[in-house]
Amino acid sequence: MSILKIIKYGNPILRQPTREVTKISKKIKTLVNDMLDTMYHANGVGLAAPQVGENLRIFVVDVSDPKGPIDPIIFINPKIIKKEGAINSYEGCLSFPKAYTNVRRYKNILVKAYDINNRPFVKEAKEGCLLARCIQHEFDHLEGKLFIDHCRNRFEANEVLSKYNLPPVEEDKLINEDFLEEEIVKFEKEHPEIVEKQKEETQETDDTNE
Ligand code: NI
Q: What are the structural domain ranges in the chain?
C-alpha cells in the first residue's frame, strides 16, 4: 500500500484515452489499493486511474461520512447504462488544487461495473446525490474529460483556472450540454424556492474533491 502522486491539470496524461482492464491481476489489485490510499490521504471522495498516471478504466469512490467507517466502491470497466434528469452542482477535482465551479450533471444514473473480485454489479444513484455526481465525474476522467470542460464557454472556464494559475482550457474540449441546460432552466423556473435553498447550501457546505 502506498500513496501515489496525483497528476495535475496541464499534464497530457489526463487527456489520454483509457483501455479496459482485461484481467484483475495482482498488479491491478495493488493499483486499486494504492488508489484508495491516495484518495483518502488527499481527503478526496473519488479518484480515477489516469489521475495516478495509469490509462486504465478504473475509478474508486467513497462518499460516506468522513467521521464514520470507510465505505469504498471500486469500479472496473464501468458503463453508464442509464442517465436522466439534470442538476447543477459545485465540484472540484484532486487534479485541480483549490479550483471549483458549477457543473451540470445527470440527476439519476445507473452504472454497471466489475468489482475487485471480477464480479459484475449495478449501482444506482439518484436525485443528484454526491455519489451520482461523483461517478459521472470519475467516469469523465476515463474518457479524458475534466470537470472544467463542462463550463458554458471558455471565458467561464478560464476565469476559474486563471485564479489558480492553471493553464486555460482547450477550446475543443468544452462539452455541448444543451439538453442538461434546458432541463436545468426548466427546473429552476418551476422551483425557484429549491434553487434559492441550493445556493445557500453551496455557500455553507465544505468543498469536495474528486
Ligand atoms: Ni477529478
A: 12-209
Q: pLDDT tens digit string along 86-141? A: 998 889 999 998 899 999 999 999 999 999 999 999 999 999 999 999 999 999 99
Which residues are annotated as catalytic?
138
Centroid of ligand 1 to alpha carbon of 193 (angstroms):
30
In what helix (H) or strand (E) does residue 63 lie, and over which residues does it extend?
Answer: none
CB atoms within 10 A of CB 47: 30
CATH superfamily of domain region 12-209: Peptide deformylase (3.90.45.10)
Longest dimension (CA), the chain: 52
Q: What is the pLDDT of residues 157-204, one digit of tens each?
A: 999 999 988 999 988 898 888 888 888 888 888 888 877 877 776 665
Phi and psi at 186, nearest 5°, equal -60, -45
- Cβ atoms within 10 Å, residue 137: 26
Distance 123 CA to ligand 1 centre (A): 20
